[in-house]
Amino acid sequence: MAIISAEKLRQLMLKLGEAARQELLRVLRQPELRGQIPAPALTAVLRDQQLRVDDFMLNLLPVAQLRAFAPLSNFRVGAVACGTSGSLYLGANLEVPLETLGNSVHAEQAAIVNAFMHEESGVTSLAVTAAPCGHCRQFLNELPNASDLDILVKGQSAVKLGAMLPSAFGPNDLGVSERLFGGKKVNLVVTSGSTDELTALAVGAASRSYAPYTNAVAGVALRTSVGTVYEGCYIESAAFNPSLSPLQAALVGLIMSGESPSNITAATLAELENAPITQENVTGAVLDALAPAASLRRVTVRVEH
Ligand SMILES: [Zn+2]
After folding, report:
1. Tell me, what DSSP letter sits at residue 175?
2. Alpha carbon of 139 to ligand 1 centroid (Å)
3. Which end of the chain is more exposed for a tag (fewer CB within 10 A), N or C?
4. What distance in angstroms lies between residue 95's CA and the mean position of ligand 1's atoms?
5. What is the DSSP letter of 165?
6. How far is the CA of 189 from the centre of ligand 1 (A)?
7. Given a cut of 70, is residue 172 above it in pLDDT?
8. Ligand 1 geometric centre to CA of 304 (Å)
9. Is 7 a catalytic residue?
């Protein structure tokens, strides 16, 4: 897996001392962390370094950019989110060739999804290679602390999301009090077909979805040719279009691990039976574009109270 070489990291992180760089390299080279720098590892890296976490996040952006999957634009965007636990999460943009541009995931979304999939309870700041686009500002408005979220861009003072998104439209406008990272989990049971490992993981991801606008909980689990599995939860936005499909969320984990989407061999989609929307067609189309030989299985679930 293409993660990062010691020499490349040295070029990108000249401000870090040798021991700190070695520690960071050790963390970045663990694909199972999926672009997470756990809080204890971050403490170890920054020990004896004259570098604040905010500055370190900005310095990490080129490392995040390396994980972008941008076959259409060849334009790599990087983001780093700081979770409330103190762990950091890398994010990068993801594009799907042969399909509509609407399937793209922006780096900011990827960093947030990465934190969400690691079961963080929130995000306090987000570093980005350039100020977030309008689409991302809207997506970020699902966070519980949205207006207080610090946006960090190199060479500029931190700006609160609230200042970047005046006259915001958000969950309150649709009468929704739930927020992303609220920790809500529903109990789901499979209503179609037999269950296997991928099904269990897809159902587990569906149970953690953030779908307050349709309640159409959904989850995806992917397996790759090296045997790794990736899960993705469905995440909605009050403005609908910035919502992320469960496949997009799973693909974020995959590219953050340094794997190629073409490695996918099998996928399972779990979604609510009789829901007002379905992820089935878009999941099949995106999977066909990225990994034509991959199999897709769909199972339905219902909520058990
Ligand atoms: Zn964006």
Report:
1. T
2. 9
3. C
4. 12
5. S
6. 35
7. yes
8. 36
9. no
Residues with CB under 5 A from ligand 1 (ion): 106, 133, 135-136
pLDDT band, residue 2 (cuts 50/70/90): low
- Mean pLDDT over 107-124 rounds to 98
Measure 205 CA to ligand 1 centroid, in angstroms. 24
Rounded to whole angstroms, the Cα distance separating 145 from 181 reads 10
Query: Residue 127 and residue 139: Cα distance in Å, rounded?
Result: 15
Structure token pair of residue 220: 């995806």
Q: Is the pLDDT of residue 3 over 90?
A: no
Q: How far is CA 24 from the centre of its chain?
A: 21
Closest CA to 21 of 80, 51, 84, 79: 51
How many beta carbons lie within 10 A of that of residue 130, not counting itself? Answer: 12
What b-and-e string marks burial along 150-166, b requiring 16 or more CB atoms within 10 Å of the CB?
bbbbeeeeeeebeebbe
Per-residue pLDDT tens digits for 15-43: 899 999 999 999 999 999 999 999 999 99
Distance of CA 91 from the midpoint of ligand 1 (Å): 12
How long is the chain? 305
List the helix and strand counts (H, then E) for the chain.
Answer: 10, 11
Q: Kindly provide the b/e burial profile for residues 228-265, where b requires at least 16 CB atoms within 10 angstroms of the residue's own CB.
A: bbbbbbbbbbbbeebbbbbbbbbbbbbbbbbbebebbe
Whether the pLDDT of residue 113 is over 90: the answer is yes
Segment 245-291, tens digit of pLDDT: 999 999 999 999 999 999 999 999 999 999 999 999 999 999 999 99
d(CA 139, CA 68): 19
pLDDT of residue 296: 98
List the catalytic residue out of 7, 95, 108, 178: 108
What's the confidence (pLDDT) of residue 15?
Answer: 85
